[in-house]
Inverse folding.
């Protein structure tokens, strides 16, 4: 026992001497070493933050990214890394577990206007804070389905221009031009459904007037699409409607230049003799009656003008280069006005 106590005493003595030796060696360079340790710790923390916590340099700002329905936490983490949303799949998993969100991740499309850290992404996914805000999109009156496709494609990231055109073109004339608010992930099906429902809603209040006019809805829509292109002022549209219905009732050619805009993209002052003689089904200089379909999607005002024309004996009209419209009852009068106002 005495021998054990002796050895224990010697051990403590040796420990004290070692501690004193190390303290003596550390003091002369204490400040430098402390700074070195702090710098090293800061570097390690900074590196860890950059490679695990901070947003990637190519974070998809303003672009949609997706969390798939039914995906596990590991699958979500790998997917977000692949989509450049987080730098580290492991860091996302750890952050999600830390905030207790591993069982409440919301599937769907997300969009952020600014880059977010891995913790910010984890919180958003756990709360279902998708960051999606409605986008205001205006479709002008008279727009064709082709021009609509271009407009929507500019704003909607899940929208397929070609597919929209192929599905919407048969509904030409029946997709109501208006100001719409769609989420950035709206698809072409969503857009078509909204525009067609809008048309059906708008036309309900005019249904009785359409029936009284003696014209079919399809004829009214085709006529309205022509009026939309032929004049800007409501009274002029009503007057032109009266002229065109007169010509149809008398089995005359309509000879409406606006129809060429739909097929060959040419206006009145660009048409050639060959254009006017072409066998295009929309060529109203060759084929009697209304064109086979609308040449655009008319406004409610143009539809009203087609239903409620201003009656007269006029059979001709022309617009000068300033957009002023002149009406005539006879062809001779029409030719005279052409010489006066168009110099032809």
């Amino acid at each position: 026992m005495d021998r054990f106590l002796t050895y224990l005493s010697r051990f403590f003595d040796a420990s004290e001497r070692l501690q004193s030796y190390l303290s003596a060696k550390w003091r002369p360079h204490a400040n430098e070493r402390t700074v070195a340790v702090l710098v090293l710790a800061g570097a390690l923390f900074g590196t860890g933050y950059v490679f695990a916590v901070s947003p990637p340099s190519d974070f998809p700002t303003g672009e949609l990214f997706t969390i798939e329905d039914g995906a596990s936490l590991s699958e979500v983490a790998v997917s977000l890394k692949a989509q450049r949303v987080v730098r580290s799949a492991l860091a996302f998993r750890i952050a999600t577990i830390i905030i207790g969100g591993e069982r409440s991740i919301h599937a769907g499309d997300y969009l952020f206007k600014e880059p977010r850290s891995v913790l910010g992404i984890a919180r958003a996914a756990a709360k279902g804070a998708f960051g999606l805000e409605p986008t205001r999109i205006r479709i002008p009156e008279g727009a064709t389905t082709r021009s609509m496709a271009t407009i929507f494609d500019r704003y909607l990231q899940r929208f397929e221009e070609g597919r929209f055109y192929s599905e919407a073109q048969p509904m030409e004339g029946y997709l109501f031009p208006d100001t719409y608010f769609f989420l950035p992930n709206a698809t072409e099906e969503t857009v078509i459904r909204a525009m067609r429902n809008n048309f059906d809603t708008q036309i309900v209040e005019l249904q009785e007037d359409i029936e009284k006019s003696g014209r079919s809805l399809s004829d009214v829509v085709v006529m309205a699409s022509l009026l939309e292109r032929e004049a800007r002022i409501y009274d002029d549209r009503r007057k032109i409607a009266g002229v065109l219905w007169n010509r149809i009732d008398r089995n005359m050619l309509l000879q409406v230049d606006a129809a060429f805009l739909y097929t060959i993209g040419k206006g009145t002052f660009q048409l050639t003799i060959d254009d006017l003689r072409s066998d295009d089904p929309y060529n109203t200089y060759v084929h009697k009656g209304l064109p086979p379909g609308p040449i655009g999607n008319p406004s409610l005002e143009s539809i009203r003008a087609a239903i409620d024309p201003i009656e007269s004996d006029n059979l001709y009209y022309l617009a000068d280069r300033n957009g002023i419209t002149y009406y005539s009852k006879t062809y001779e009068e029409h030719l005279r006005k052409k010489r006066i106002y168009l110099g032809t």
Remarks:
- Residues 65-127 form a domain with the Dna Ligase; domain 1 fold (CATH 3.30.1490).
- The chain has three domains: 65-127, 135-203, 214-341.
